[in-house]
Design goal:
The structure holds 2 protein chains of 2 kinds. Chain A is of the alpha+beta class. Helix content of chain A is 55%, strand content 20%. The two termini of chain A are 37 Å apart. By secondary structure, chain B is an alpha/beta fold. The chains are: A alpha+beta, B alpha/beta.
């Protein structure tokens, strides 16, 4: 009990020290607070940037999960999951498209134009003509494909399946350009009601809610459909996954540099804060305060200050993220020239658990390191030497 | 009680070595008041620091309460200081961020005395030195004389066996200096503790039972 009272006395002394040196305490706390707040916001921005990249990539056509070559008799219940936001079914057939003597190998996909327009951004990539509408008999083809065929809007083209036994004529209704070769060269679309070919093959694009566990959902689809042909977006687009990992690393380096610079400022200020009071520590030691108790006193001061400043910093960062994430940060004016920004150029900062924990932990580590040298100096110096310090 | 046996102390000043104390030997008895007189730079502060255990002599011994101070570990010196000694510094050295009450309570708390026991003792002592009204004041709100009274109270509150005072009256007028030194000697007599103070003020020397004169680091 008496030991506890003694520790409380030291903590109270440290608290008095901080409260009554309120100017120094405020300046240091503000530095820690701003460093932590900035880190929280930057981390949320990095997560939001990754989200925007994924949203723009999966929103073009593929969805978060793609199913290939599925049986077209598959029931809706196979795709039921609480985290599934929407499912787009697509009937596909491979074949040859031709106009006069120009021929080109393509994949014709029968789609529901209204559902596709609601869930994907391909229609935004129309460069000529119009996107498909329900029950239209037109064809929506890639710009490169149109170029190979030397065809334009209103031209008739013939699609022949790979067996060569079935063929059908379509009128080009719209031309798109995504900038992605695989799309612009080989993908052509029509209303599924106007497909005119028998196919048992079905592709699906599954869109998920925020934070869904993709591997778990894929497993559930595989189990319920007895089909293995499901791929997550990061398996279909390994380049995007790599980009996101690189972005994570570069943002990690960037935030570490920002925090290190801020922390050096905090460390220097903290060193001055402790050294300024060396004389008082000397007086306390002359009254019998031991070296270990002096170290305890200094670290308690640091701990109390970091605890409150970092907590306010996290709350401030959280508040800023909450406010900004409502409307997001619109970078459309910067990204409008970029063909890969399909869905939107808005970044919605989002916080993860690590975004909230890492900044205060880092500030704690840096400030403790900053306090270590002055604490060591005070505890190991002779009382008479410390007391000569002003 | 305190036996100083042939102590020597040197300091470095740039490339020079300055001999501050040379072959100092004397004794202080229990309940005795000893004054160390000398001009500035004669080595008074260094001698007091060596006697208190906050500085080690280069050679010789200081035996205080049967303990040779220079042979004690830093932890044991801390324990010795907190229990047995009180120090009144030349510049008072009150802890600037603690109130008068907290400053006086500090040595008591270090000795594990808390609560009503500590409170009663502090109130009684503050009453005795006429500073009860300033109990919640911070050191910056006190005059020189008031600060010295608090420094004296802080040095005596935990009833140490020895009190050291380093030129305590240096920055006070002679009337105030005499009043405060009277207070220090009176309370220390009541508490049966020895007092060793340094001064260059001839007028307060008559307060001491014994006067030692220090010149160029030697006792005359």
């Amino acid at each position: 009990m008496s030991k506890l009272i003694y520790i409380l006395f030291l903590i109270k002394t440290a608290t008095n020290f901080l409260l009554r040196s309120w100017r120094s305490t405020s300046v240091l706390s503000f530095m820690i607070f701003s460093a932590v707040g900035t880190m929280v916001f930057l981390s949320a921005l990095a997560t939001g940037t990754n989200d925007a990249m994924i949203r723009n990539s999966v929103g073009l056509f593929s969805g978060h999960i793609s199913g290939f070559n599925l049986n077209d008799k598959m029931s809706e219940t196979s795709f039921q999951h609480k985290d599934v936001a929407s499912i787009l079914k697509r009937q596909v057939i491979n074949g040859i498209i031709s106009k006069n003597t120009n021929i080109h190998r393509v994949q014709l996909t029968g789609i529901n134009p209204e559902e596709e327009k609601t869930n994907t951004g391909l229609w935004k990539k129309t460069v000529s003509g119009k996107y498909l509408v329900k029950n239209s008999k037109g064809l929506y083809i890639g710009a490169n494909c149109a170029k190979f065929l030397n065809a334009g809007i209103g031209d008739k083209v013939k699609f022949t399946d790979l067996s060569g036994k079935s063929e059908h004529y379509y009128t080009i209704n719209g031309i798109f350009k995504t900038g992605l070769t695989a799309f612009d060269d080989n993908k052509i679309f029509c209303d599924s009601g106007n497909l005119a070919f028998q196919t048992q093959l079905l592709n699906v694009a599954v869109f998920l809610k925020e934070g869904a566990d993709i591997p778990e959902i894929i497993n559930s689809f595989k189990n319920s459909s007895a089909n293995e042909n499901f791929l997550a977006w990061y398996e279909m687009m390994p380049d995007l996954k790599q980009l996101i990992e690189m972005n994570d690393i570069s943002m990690g380096i960037l935030t570490t540099i920002v925090f290190t610079i801020l922390s050096i400022g905090v460390s220097c200020a903290f060193m001055i804060f402790v050294l300024k009071n060396l004389h008082e520590y000397g007086v306390m030691k002359s009254m019998g305060l031991s070296s270990s108790e002096t170290v305890f006193l200094i670290f308690t001061e640091v701990f109390i200050m970091i605890f409150f400043a970092a907590a306010v910093g996290v709350l401030f960062g959280l508040l800023v993220v909450q406010i900004i994430s409502g409307n997001g940060i619109d970078i459309s004016s910067v990204t409008s020239h970029n063909k890969y920004f399909i869905i939107s150029g808005i970044i919605y900062p989002r916080l993860t658990f690590s975004d909230l924990i890492l900044p205060p932990v880092m500030s704690f580590v840096f400030c403790i390191l900053a306090a270590a040298w002055p604490a060591y100096t005070v505890s190991t110096s002779k009382i008479s030497k410390v007391m000569k310090t002003i | 009680m305190i036996s100083v046996e042939s102590i020597y102390k040197k300091f470095s000043a740039g490339r020079r070595k300055i001999q501050v104390l040379t072959d100092i030997s004397f004794e202080v008895e229990q309940n005795e008041c000893v004054a160390i007189k000398g001009r500035s730079g004669s080595g008074k502060t260094t001698l007091l620091n060596c006697m208190a255990g906050i500085e080690k002599p280069d050679s010789g011994k200081v035996i205080s309460l049967s303990k040779e101070l220079s042979s004690l570990s830093p932890g044991k010196v801390s324990s010795f200081l907190r229990v047995n000694t009180g120090f009144v510094f030349q510049q008072y050295n009150l802890l600037s961020y603690l109130t008068v009450y907290e400053n006086i309570a500090f040595p008591l708390n270090l000795n594990g005395i808390f609560g009503m026991k500590a409170k009663n003792r502090i109130h009684k002592l503050l009453d005795m030195i006429g500073m009860i009204d300033a109990i919640d004041a911070l050191p910056k709100e006190l005059s020189g004389g008031e600060s010295l009274r608090i420094a004296v109270a802080r040095a005596l509150i935990h009833k140490p066996k020895i009190v050291f005072a380093d030129e305590p009256t240096a920055s006070l007028d002679s009337k105030t200096a005499k009043v405060i030194l009277d207070l220090l000697t009176k309370i220390s007599k009541e508490q049966k503790c020895s007092v060793v103070f340094s001064t260059h003020d001839e007028e307060i020397l008559n307060q001491a039972d014994k006067v030692l004169e220090l010149k160029d680091g030697r006792i005359l």
